Predict the structure.
Amino acid sequence: MFQFGSLSEFIQMDGHGPYVWAAYLISLLALLWLVVSPLYRKRKLMQEIVRQQRREVARRQNANTTKSTSQE
Amino acid sequence: MWQWFHRLGSPRWFYQTSGKWLPWLSVLAAVLLSVGVIWGLGFAPEDAKQGNSFRIIYIHVPASFLALAGYYVMAVAGAVGLIWKMKLADMVMKSAAPIGAILTFVALVTGSIWGKPTWGAYWIWDARITSMLVLFFLYLGVIALQYSYTSQDAASKASAVLSLVGMVNIPIIYKSVDWWYTLHQPATIKFTGAPAMHPDMFHPLLVMILGFYCFYAVALILNTRVEILHRERRTRWVQDMSLKAQEGQT
């Protein structure tokens, strides 16, 4: 059964509201950070890996063309 | 016979298998935590002595549980990495450190907020609180060690040793409320005997603890997966997968 008569009573919690809500809010932010930060890092890392791959392919092609031109 | 052990140690195998579990675990964690929070905040009866401030227990106790369980995970992974030179275990240890640190931080902060209306002070040097602070510093020490070596092998070894030495703090935390009976209340839940709590208050707590365990698993898997990608970034399978993911986005 719901313990509070109204929404404002629920928010105030007999004067303990600020403590309870602050504790829950801080925990929520901390837990969210634990999930969002690896997801963000994974995205960044994959982008970096692909960039590096493209750079290497470009360098290899460059090396080939300079080799063939020097042979001429 | 040891084949499963070697396969378990393969980062690639772990990455692919954990990818299948992740959605289910995430949904389970989200459902358990939502149910637990609503139940604990709105429907659990008020505490006769502490009033509504006791509702902080529904995050304080689960966060403390996982801060301690997370230390076991880190230390055991560190030991496995030291003994069997298993790379995946090193990655798990490294990922467990920041998660444990944040959960310990949550336990300390929520405890401190709870202390104000209950004891009249945000902070006191009670045995339980002080040993939890030591736990927090141990986690920070492992994180710092990870970044203070240029060689990843040396960093893993040093962190594993620190995690194992830090294990002495764990029984101190557990026993602190009995050995030094100061301000922190004794354990609500005991492995032997009934919990010191009315079932109407205890059931939502149980749901929250289960939810925190599932959440911990999700966070650990997510962080370990990034670590795997980072250390295996030169391998074919990671490069192909990254390319595929990138094409899917554009």
Observations:
- The two ends of chain B are 45 Å apart (CA to CA).
- The first helix of chain B runs from residue 3 to 8.
